[in-house]
Amino acid sequence: MSENTFGFNELTDAAQDNALKTFAKYYVRQYKQDNLEIIDALANDDEAVAMINQILEENNYLTEAKLADMSIAMVKSCYVKILNELSARFDEDGEPVESWETWMQSEHAKLPQED
Question: What is the top-level taxon of the source organism (predicted)?
Fold first, then answer.
């Protein structure tokens, strides 16, 4: 694995498109599992999250892959806003350095523990 990692906004356009596609697929899975709390909290943009979720809700009959593609086509800028806020790192091709599942577990572990 390359030692060079990049934030979303540091990627080339082609790499951003790849990162966007993998993130959208992950986002849709999390949406269907009602598990967006961490992404929502870190996104710092309630409007972007709400716009994506509205598209997903209105078209929930579609497969996850089709929902990801449709939502990117309709609200790509919302995904971009969210990805710019997340701490995820990518390789030069836009592949996440760690899987989105691992990233989510890492972010979850950082949350304060309740007594």
Answer: Bacteria
